[in-house]
Amino acid sequence: MLIYPDIDPIALELGPVKVHWYGLMYLLGFAQAWWLGRLRARKPGSGWREEEVGEIIFYGALGVILGGRIGYMLFYNFPMLMDNPLSLFKIWEGGMSFHGGLLGVIVAMWLFGRRYGKTFFQITDFIAPLVPLAYFAGRIGNFINGELWGRVTDVPWAMVFPHVDNLPRHPSMLYQAVLEGLVVFVLLWLYSARPRPRMAVSAMFLLLFGSFRIFNEFFRQPDAQLGFIAFDWLTMGQLLSLPMVVAGGIMLWLAYRGDSRVKGK
User: Fold this and answer.
1) pLDDT digits (tens, 9 = 90+) for 40-58
2) Chain centroid, CA 237 distance in Å
3) Number of independent structural domains in the chain
4) H-type helices in 12-157, by residue range?
């Protein structure tokens, strides 16, 4: 059995300014997305210029932050939002939703496409492989904060989170970091290394991430304010991930069907 290492969530203090590890993980995530994006843009026939990568990361960052916060309050803390609408802006108190961030990025990429004259799936196929490592960094930030712990278990690698209780639990934020972050990145990077039909890379991201998220939710403790949504096992994370898997499967079928409309022509 392991004991959670009590890590100070504040990485650096500069007078009254406190720099949190969680914020640094977000910066690291955006930085690696920018670096990987420039690598992809350099590939012959990519259809992208390196100068465009910075712009798309800026749009994506806005989508992640705004969508992630709004999504968290709508999906996970709606009563608080109704009681105090200003709580939406209290980002320093924590609370970000991946699924909300995904919706925010979708809107941001649509706006980017309108401005730069690129089709929606041309954009999402390009950025999809950049997302998982950024997600990995975010989950490491959750681990440093000692949040999103797992359910009680007796596995040898169970971890006790003393700030929660003295029960051995799954370190579920690390499961998510590895499966939804590292594993999805490797599979998607390899898959996108060869030419694929338009929309296929985006579809594969939805399929892989949604499937792993549903699996990992069986080990993660449901949010206290929500509990299980249904059947004593369905969580909000699983409910929000199911449409990702369905949409990904349909999109992949359409992509390989060879419909000219799918290819954005």
Assistant:
1) 999 988 889 999 999 999 9
2) 12
3) 1
4) 21-42, 50-75, 78-83, 98-116, 120-127, 131-145
Judge contact between 81 and 88, C-beta under 8 A: yes
pLDDT digits (tens, 9 = 90+) for 159-209: 999 999 999 999 999 999 999 999 999 999 999 999 999 999 999 999 999
Q: Is residue 76 part of a domain?
A: yes
Question: In this structure, is residue 199 part of a structural domain?
Answer: yes
Residue 245 near residue 217, CB atoms below 8 Å: no
For residue 173, give the nearest of 204, 131, 213, 209 by alpha carbon. Answer: 213
Among 106, 141, 125, smallest CA distance to 7 is for 141
| Alpha-carbon gap, residue 246 to 224, rounded angstroms | 28
The CA distance from 98 to 206, in Å, is 12
Q: Does this model's pTM top 0.85? A: yes
